[in-house]
Every structure is written in C-alpha cells, then in structure tokens.
Amino acid sequence: MNEVVIGVDGGTTAVKAVAFALDGSIVAAHHEAVPVDYGTAGEAEQDMNKIWDAVAACLRSVTEQLGDTKVIAVGLTGQGDGLWLVDADGEPVRPAATWMDGRAADRVQTWTEDGRADKMLEVTGTSVFGGLFPVLVEELAATEPDAVARAATHLNCKDWLRLKLTGVRSTDYTEASRSFLDVRDGSGFSASLAAEVGLSEMIRLLPEIRPADGEASPLSAQGAAATGLPEGTPVGVGMIDVAVTGMGLGIVEDGASWLILGTTGFVGTLLPAVADRRSELSMVLATGHGTQVLEFMAPMTGTPNLDWIRRTLTLDDIGWDEIEATARQVPAGSGGVIYLPYASPGGERAPFLDTRASASWQGMSLTTTRAEILRAVYEGVAFSLVECIEALQITRDLVVSGGGFRSDLLCEILADATGLNVVRQDAPEAGARGAAVLALVSAGRFPDVAEAAASLGTSMRTFTPDPAHRDAYRRTSDVFRHTRDALRPVWPELRELRRQSRAE
Length: 504
Fold this sequence. Notes:
The protein is an alpha+beta fold. Helix content is 38%, strand content 19%. Helix 12 crosses helix 13 and helix 13 (370-391) crosses helix 14.
C-alpha cells in the first residue's frame, strides 16, 4: 500500500493540508482562506473555530483525494505569537489576538522604559512587541478581565489545532520561547521571570512543553470524525512556522541559516547556545536540542506589501510574471524612488523595534513611473532582509523559501545587494513539508530530522550575485536607511492622525 505523510500549515491568511509521498512529491493538497478582523485601535483578530473548521475541511479534502492510501502521520505548524485562549472545556473564550495585533503598542513602550523588556530579552531571548503573549495577556487582563479569568490554557495556532485533533494540550520549545521559557538552559517556564514582569498569575495558562520531534499523540475519535482520517493516526508536536521550514530543508547543524518570506520575513541561524548570539536586536528560540538556539530576526515587511501595491495600482488581473516584467523596465535603484515597507498594523520588530512604524514612498516626482514604484517595493522588502542578514553576520549561502521568494526578481535583488548566493527551494509548501518531516520522526519512521528531510528533499535553484549591481544597491540601501531614520520621529504622529481620521 502507498504511504504518505500530511503536513498542516495554519498560516495567517490561509491554512493548508499537504500530503507528501516518501520521495517528497506532493500527492494531494487543499487550502482554505481564513479571515483576519482588523479594528480601529490596532486589533488584528481571528475566530479560532473558523481556523479549525478550515483545517478540518482541508484534511477532509486531502483524505478524499488519497482514497486507500495509508497516512503514516500528521504534522503541524502555524503562525506564532498572539494570544489564543481556551477554557477548561477546550472552547475559545474570545477570538485569537494574532501576532499582528497592535492594540498594546503603548504597553510595549512602558515595558521598554521600566526595564521589563530587557528582562524578557535576557531570559527568553525575545524582544517585546505588541503581538507577544506577555504583553497581550497584560492588555486583555486589563480590558477584558472576565475573558482572561475564564481561560484555562493559552495555545498557539498549531497547538490549538492539535487540541482539536487529539485532545492534548501542549506546545513545543520554539513556541514556549515566546512566553516565559528560559532559553539559557531550556529548563522550562521561568516563574521568577513571570513574577518580575508582574504576570505570575498568567503562567497558569502555559501548557506542557514537548520536543518538536518527540512522541506523537493519537488522533481522537472526534478528530477522526471531523477530518476523515483513521482514529489513532499519529499527530506530531511540530514547531512554530518560522522554525519548521529549516526542518524541511534539513538544516540542523550549528552555523547554518535560512530565510523565509511570507506574510512576514524571517532570517535565522542556528547557534550552539544563547551566549553565541550575534545581535542584541535579534530574538532567540530554544530548539529543544540541548542548549542549541535559533537566533533570528522576523521583520513584518513581507508579501502583504506586494499584494497591496498590486491592488493599489489596479493590477489584480495581471499575473506576477507581468508585474515583475514591468518592474524590470527600470534598473537597480528604482529611479531614485525609495519605499519604506513598514505597512503592518503592528509596526516593525526587526531589525529595529518600533510599534508605530509606517510605510511610505520617498523621492517621487511628476516623472516617476509605475515601473519605478513597483520596483521600489521589491527593493524595499529586500533591503529590510539585508539589514537582518548583516545584523546576524551571515556570510554563507542564503537558503530561501516561502511564497515571496517565488519571485525571481526578489531573489536577484537579494543576491546582488548582499553579494551572497541565494539558494531557493523550488518545491512548494515549505512549511507543510517541514511539519511533515517532524511528523515522520515523531511517528518513528525515521531516526532523526536529517534523514527524514533527505527523504522529502527537493531541488534547489541558485541565484548568483551580479557585481555590476552592487554599487547601485549599496547607494540605494544607504538612502533607504537614512530616510527611514529621518522619518521615525514623526511616525507616532502619522499613526495618531490615521487613527483619528478613521474614527471620524
């Protein structure tokens, strides 16, 4: 009988289930869009039951496509951070406040001023931002105390899905690092840290921590009924989405790096211990393998910038290949047009932290063309990644994945601007593939991640830097940074002006 492993990826705007044969080929797949509800005060929320319903629909579709094919295991990944609260019966007490949520921006400033942000960074390796669990739970405890009081457990997206599939409340070390995990030794949640930041009572919400590739849990009868999968099918623990892609690439050794560009960006490198981190502005996740950590920066300047400019210029009916062809009509530097890609409601968190960051174009005139505007967006997104690469002192080939890197133009800009080879995983569904790799280990099919990843391996394409473009990008990147730094003092006023005008 043919065998497959299913990877489930609970993304921010879409969820998917992908069935992989053990040679890495995709046998079946299904995705569903999921809405994000934005509020006037920076809220970015999602209905947790709608996310589960969408994932269940994906799994039912894949199961039907597979027919009699045997499913070895199901792996999970999903968006990280935010506040996902369920009660004692496993029901959501309110919509999930996502990683994009910006309602607690003022608290971030307060935490920075009173030293709590520094303490969080010291113990957990995480820089404080508006969508982080401790900040959001403090905000909701003040504004919605009844909801927080009813909550029994905080479960991030993939953990919520595992609860619905298996009845098990748990998380892994990467997600735990985003709350109160002491990443210096990976020993567990730090009660002393929770006390120091005034949230001792909230540590009760944090679930058991399990290794990402540890023993799987069996699919429950309820999970089987909802998905069409056989009861007892092993369901893996998984990782947060930014980390799991590296597993799909087989990146497990210290010093190796990878990049992702989706709804947000990600630039990360594996290190032996938190003491080896290379930037004070980075964040760190424990991997669950001794003292090893993933040091990373996750700029919020992802593909929504490209989607937005496509809509704004009424190019919805034009394919991305044609859009890129238009952008290629102008050379590196975009005719002097600079785009600052800080369009997220939550501001920016890497390579700098500013909850009030705002997007804008600079250097435009009556002679500015559509092609220059388009290319400037591609360059702005790339420059944000370049800053992170430099901050993390990455000098090896840049292994990239994610929907944004399907753009040849973006890969070329990144290679030219850094002088490094950009190596792209050409196979789709990198997040689901990484989740599937971990599930194969959890189900006992492979002894470790490296062997499982080799089984599901994919072809790669390399973009080599063009030295002829390096000087142009260096000049443009310098102006990009100078312009950004000059505008930062007025970002709070711009945010407040936008809030007031929309409230009227």
